[in-house]
Amino acid sequence: METSKEIARILLEKEAVTLNTTHPYTYASGIRGPIYCDNRKLIAHPTAREFICKAFLEKIKNSDFDVIAGTATAGIPWASFLAQHLQKPLAYVRSEKKAHGKGNQIEGAEVQGKKVIIIEDLISTGGSSITTLEACRNAGAIVCGIYAIFSYDFPDTQKEFQKNQCTLITLTTFSVLLQVAKENKNITPEQEKILLAWNKDPVSWGAQYSPLKNESPLTEKEQKAKNLVCLALDDLHSLDDVKKQIQSLSPYVGMFKIGKELFTRFGTEVVKLCKEQNKNLFLDLKFHDIPNTVRLAVKAATELGVDLITLHSSGGKEMMKAAVQGRKEANLAKKPKLIAVTVLTSIDEQTLHQELKIPEEINSYILHLMFLAKESGMDGVVCSAADLVFLKDNLPHDLFFVTPGIQGPYTTVGSDQKRILTPGKAIQAGASLLVIGRAITASPNPEQAAKEILQDIAKVI
């Protein structure tokens, strides 16, 4: 019990587990809850890492096994630490088979006919662990048990493992963590009641306890701010995930962006899904090709019924004019805005000069591309809000300014974005539409992050 409590203390201290009964977190499944677990944080702390590894070793010391398998991705580091210490073969198990190469689901050590233990970082509903279990058994492995750092201890989870005739052993659990949180005065008695209610029935808990469902509607200024925000739909692996994200964030977002990743993964089906939800849609494919190819591409994109289409201004006047012609030829009354990309927000002065061999100062080059776009019939341009700050007095009139590279008031943007600004400052700089992705979607509570962005914009409009 002491080891279990010490691990719970480590989880809280290192913020691998955080508790928030006021603003619940949204999980990948769409379920909301007052607890969030990210055990990946633990691998950054050598002392904590060593303690947890020793606890794992104590649990598995009497097990007879040949191979240690880690569940991708969070279970892999722990499986690696243990396999190295015990000098055992290591394997890792994907959630599904690869779509390329040999189509493997299990990599590393051969598991056929071998006794295998599976290492997980977290057990929630147990679904991913059961998938790993089935993959190993289908590959001919004899699974001796699943070991995890932490479990939410849901009533039905243990039944699921029993049904699949698999032993589950965890280093600590939700109930132990709650006990430690009480002893350390991390939670009040009222918060404890809320946490216990969630643990008893996590699916229906959100409707009863989620304050976002009961909070006041957007103010008039926040509603105006909503129409200035476009959410980038990225890193989603099923159309169901896309639909869930649209539904959960629609109260705070006026437009959704489909980029190269989602369009490559799902094709026009993802566009149809968004249109079925009656959402304004930004098709961000950044066309850059010979004029005739861009003309036909823009014609086809227009006929999908989208609201904004991007192309690269560096394709030149003839290419942009061909895009205008393609839009005109489209057999659809509704015509989208054509938005020309100037310089990507991932490119800074050093990249422009040293890698692209463009000697002009970056602001001067961006301004040149803006005027080129306007002369070619573009409705707007994409540039960073930071660029607008420097160029404000020289900007072309009547252009629609789309600005990515936006960080939240309390959330960060991706590390690959180099020219960034907060929402309110971006609007003050002259932005017409803010494209925001990870500042919302990478937050433990995306709805709260989105609401805070609207509040930041509302202060300046």
Structural Rg: 26 Å
How many structural domains does the protein architecture include?
2
Q: Could you give the count of β-strands?
A: 18
Helix content: 40-55%
* Largest sheet geometry: 8 strands, parallel, barrel
CATH architecture descriptor name of the largest domain? Alpha-Beta Barrel
Order of strands in the sheet with most strands:
11-12-13-14-15-16-17-18
Concise summary:
With 461 residues, this protein is of the alpha/beta class. The protein is built from 21 helices and 18 strands.
Structure description:
By secondary structure, this protein is an alpha/beta fold. It folds into two domains: 207 residues, Rossmann fold (3-Layer(aba) Sandwich), CATH 3.40.50.2020; 243 residues, Alpha-Beta Barrel (TIM Barrel), CATH 3.20.20.70. Helix content is 44%, strand content 18%. It has 21 helices and 18 strands. Helix 3 links the parallel strand 5 and strand 6. Helix 14 packs parallel to helix 15 and helix 18 runs parallel beside helix 19. It is elongated and about 75 Å long. About 2% of the residues have low confidence.
Which terms would index this structure?
461 residues, single chain, 8-stranded parallel β-barrel, alpha/beta, TIM Barrel, 44% helix, Rossmann fold, 21 helices, 2 domains, 6-stranded mixed sheet
SSE layout and pairings?
Layout: H1 2-13, E1 17-19, E2 25-26, E3 32-33, E4 35-37, H2 46-60, E5 67-71, H3 76-86, E6 90-93, E7 106-108, E8 115-123, H4 127-138, E9 142-151, H5 155-163, E10 168-173, H6 174-183, H7 189-200, H8 202-209, H9 211-214, H10 220-226, E11 229-233, H11 239-249, E12 255-258, H12 260-266, H13 268-276, E13 280-287, H14 291-302, E14 308-312, H15 317-329, E15 337-341, H16 349-355, H17 362-375, E16 380-382, H18 385-391, E17 400-403, H19 423-429, E18 433-436, H20 438-441, H21 446-458
Parallel strand pairs: 5-6, 5-8, 8-9, 9-10, 11-12, 11-18, 12-13, 13-14, 14-15, 15-16, 16-17, 17-18
Antiparallel strand pairs: 1-4, 2-3, 6-7
Helix pairs in contact: 1-6, 7-8, 10-21, 11-13, 14-15, 18-19, 19-21
